[in-house]
Amino acid sequence: MPYNIEDPRRDMDDLVVVDPDQARHERGLELYLRHRINSIDLEQRVLSVTDLEADQESTVSYDALILATGARPERPNLPGFELPGVEVLRVMDDGVRIKQALDARVRNVVIVGAGALGMEMAHVLTSREIEVTVLERLPRVLPGWHGDTVTRVEKVLEREGVRALCAASVQAIEAGPDGRVCAVVTDQERLAAELVVVAVGIRANVALAASAGLRLGDSGAIWVNQHQLTSNDAVWAAGDCAEVYHRVLRRNTWKPLATTANKQGRVAGANAAGAMERFAGVVGTAAMKMFDLEVARTGLSTRTARDEGFEPVETTVRQRSRAHGYPGGSTVQVTLVADGPTGLLLGAELTGEEGAALRANTVAAALAAHMSVTDLQQLDLAYAPPFAPVWDPLLVAANQLSKKIGRSR
Ligand SMILES: Cc1cc2nc3c(=O)[nH]c(=O)nc-3n(C[C@H](O)[C@H](O)[C@H](O)COP(=O)(O)OP(=O)(O)OC[C@H]3O[C@@H](n4cnc5c(N)ncnc54)[C@H](O)[C@@H]3O)c2cc1C
Known about the structure:
Blueprint: H1 2-6, H2 20-25, E1 35-41, E2 46-51, E3 56-61, E4 65-67, E5 71-73, E6 86-87, H3 92-103, E7 108-112, H4 116-127, E8 131-135, H5 147-160, E9 163-165, E10 170-175, E11 181-186, E12 190-192, E13 195-198, E14 202-204, H6 207-212, E15 235-237, E16 244-246, E17 251-253, H7 258-272, E18 286-290, E19 293-299, H8 302-307, E20 312-320, E21 331-339, E22 345-352, H9 357-368, H10 373-377, H11 393-408
Parallel strand pairs: 4-15, 6-13, 7-8, 7-13, 8-9
Antiparallel strand pairs: 1-2, 2-3, 5-14, 10-11, 11-12, 16-17, 18-19, 19-22, 20-21, 21-22
């Protein structure tokens, strides 16, 4: 959606991959739109359903049930967050409303929350020549990301004229005479805003599962095993509502991303139909683009690694994306994290104008294979001047980290 919002000529419907008619006629699904599941009787294997168009209640029985109820955006419980012109971005209708506001020549937008979505929206709105302020409660943008990554992102924000107001708490949103949002009040200052985009995080939709008595995991999302089976043997769960096995942590966690949802959905679907497939799990890979900068991560950060009982050692290197002497190219910054005592590779963050996001995928594969830093140092990565130097930035980072680990022992 953010990239669709960036282009005023594109219709939001361009994003639809399978429309209801295709689902019914080409895929043979019985599809009930505008129907809400209110409760699940696990004993009787019966759902209570409301047809929201006809306002009618009914029951539906099942042999196998897959929960894919997703997640919902959080909205701070503060005055004014319900005003017209205060939007979240979760479903396509949200995107349509934001686009309509932009078409109505909104000039200044405040984004509440400087996580990945807030940063993507800062890029998108600035490209549409809108004055953007990003508000963040914590001291820096992209909370949870490595300081070296954040520094690079901050430089891009400054260069592009995006104002990041950090260590600032929103207190209220105010309406103008027309009843629409006109300002955001923080503990530091009052900011004029014709549109506010709230991007302060999401929460798994677990009410249905919890009220039925299904087990929730430590993360608060629905507990599942690697077959996507819940604590009930006729109910599977997949996507943002469910936990996922983390291959570095070797336990369940919550990583609500499309790539995870799709793989879990395939496994849940197959197993609900009688197969016994297993989802190997994730390592926590994610990427975004901010202006011309690719920002990506995989695995654990140093802080998470420490919290999880590892003894992390990290290094950051800045290397050319292409061979010396080959035209073009730019700087790829790699932060690599490993466990000091064992040398086990734990995670990476990468930024750069080219070749950063997809290099994170190489580290993701290494993490899935439980490689050590030494394994990564010796990985047979391609060298050709247009694509990489003879020592790829990842290999340089692994060499440096290996030395650092050696010194720390
Ligand atoms: C702006 C944005 C950008 C994103 N960018 C990326 C990205 O670049 N990469 C990435 O990997 N991920 C990205 N994501 C995350 C990704 O979209 C989600 O992980 C994915 O959509 C999850 O799919 P899902 O089917 O589990 O849940 P959802 O897509 O949330 O679908 C859940 C559905 O269940 C329905 N539902 C809930 N409760 C009930 C009920 N009681 N009865 C009936 N229906 C119910 C909901 O109405 C909803 O339609 C992004 C998300 C957003 C919002």
